[in-house]
Amino acid sequence: MTPPRVIAGVLLAGGLSRRMGGGDKSLRVLGGATILARVIARARPQVTALVLNANGDPARFQEFGLPVVADSIPDFAGPLAGVLAGLDWAAANVAGATHLASFATDTPFLPVDLVARLAEAVADGRHDLACAASNGRTHPVFGLWSLALRDDLRAALRSGMRKVDQWTARHRLAVVEFPAQPYDPFFNTNTLEDLNEGERVSRTADATRRAVPG
User: Which residues are within 8 A (CB) of 136 and not within 5 positions of it... i.e. 6 or more apart?
Assistant: First the structure.
């Protein structure tokens, strides 16, 4: 079998950013660019179409030129609600889409081959979902989700389920390991201290990208 060819993407920015003091942490500046701009630059080339999941006034993201969809499940139900919003958007707007890739918007150094490797993991038809891992930890919000599961996800959310790994455990999940050197590509900026560390990581990450041919 071959990997899925039409994959939509959703950027998950629907959280409350409590540990960053509120507001949109993805709009914080890191290494001369917003975290969100860095995420978009890495995610957009990997998918057929990209949507931003965010609650509140969508105008604050206007400069990025992406469609914005809010959660359909109320009360900030977490990343699973954002995935569902992305699945529904892809089903309605991306012709031929079979899968959705999800990206956290506080992780500015995500792998540029993330979607390709997740798609390869489900190509044999033995898995419904795939998620990333690094340094001995899984990162379930970096996942590849079959559109065929969106009604099951909707029902789970309506019944009160909120934990990503609790829902993925109900399905055939492939876990794809990514190297964590010279930096962990899933480093995330949850706090102001993380932003300071991210400045250091950004220098390594940007130098690494410039050193790769093509």
Answer: none
Tell me how far apart the alpha carbons of residues 81 and 119 are, in angstroms, rounded to a whole number.
22
- Specify the number of domains making up the chain: 1
Tokens 């934990």 belong to which residue? 163
Neighbours of 197 (CB within 10 A): 12
Give the containing element (helix H, strand E) for 134: strand 129-134
Whether 49 is covered by a domain: the verdict is: yes
Burial 135-161 (b: 16+ CB within 10 A, else e): eeebbbbbbbbbbebbeebbebbeeeb
Domain range enclosing 150: 7-211
Q: What is the DSSP letter of 151?
A: H
Terminal Cα-to-Cα distance of the chain (whole angstroms): 28
Query: Three-state DSSP class for 147?
Result: helix
Q: What is Dmax (Cα atoms) for the chain?
A: 49
22 pLDDT above the threshold of 90 = no
Quick count: other Cβ atoms within 10 Å of Cβ 37? 16
Q: Give 113-155 pLDDT, tens digit per residue.
A: 999 999 999 999 999 999 999 999 999 999 999 999 999 999 9
Q: What is the CATH number of the domain that holds 121?
A: 3.90.550.10
